[in-house]
Amino acid sequence: MSRVPNGAPKSCMTLAARDVSFAYQRREPIVSQWSAEFVPGSMTALTGPSGRGKSTLLYLLGLMLRPASGDVLVDGEPSGRLSDARRAALRARAFGFVFQDAALDQTRTLIDNVTEPALYRGDDRIRAAQRGRALLDRFGVDLPSDRKPGQISGGQAQRIALSRALVTEPPILLADEPTGNLDPVTTEFVVCALRDYARAGGVVVVVTHSIALAARCDRELQL
């Protein structure tokens, strides 16, 4: 696998869902016996009407929710019976996340927001900051790294969130409506960054309502 400077996956992993079901508070299942496989080098769009469970499914794939039945396999290994601590460790090692609203911590500096996943994983603080600043530079964030998120635009915030997702060079990148509130220029930037990450060997899964974004993916799975 060829390496792309400043944010290519360190390694390749597969991701799969096997007959996954999930319901909130004993209601009807929002996800029911759903299966799919995701391979390195591919970008997949999860699409469908609101309320069909797209975001829930993404959180199941990312080990943030535990399925009621079925299992999520990371690099062929079932995750359902792992303890919460082991699931958290696997999540930190294998996944990067991008959310629609960027979900930055308003009380922390930009560079602290970016490096948080790396420090949680136990990476060296100085090296994490170097990677974070390299990503911010690559993604055109021309701002003091000690600035707070409340002082930036929505487009800048999403570029920072993308830097945060990639700072650990995760094998798997999950994005929930990453272009939902962005202007056309930033939308194109984010889409290209996601596609580049897939081409560099990552597994990229994107929840989206955008027909244009879905068309840029390698495949589309409708819920």
From TrEMBL:
Keywords carried by this UniProt record: ATP-binding, Nucleotide-binding
Alphabetized PROSITE patterns for the sequence: ABC_TRANSPORTER_1, ABC_TRANSPORTER_2
Annotated ABC transporter domain residues: 15-223
GO molecular function: ATP binding
Family: Belongs to the ABC transporter superfamily.
Stored PANTHER family: IMPORT ATP-BINDING PROTEIN, LIPOPROTEIN-RELEASING SYSTEM ATP-BINDING PROTEIN LOLD
Protein name, UniProt field: ABC transport system ATP-binding protein
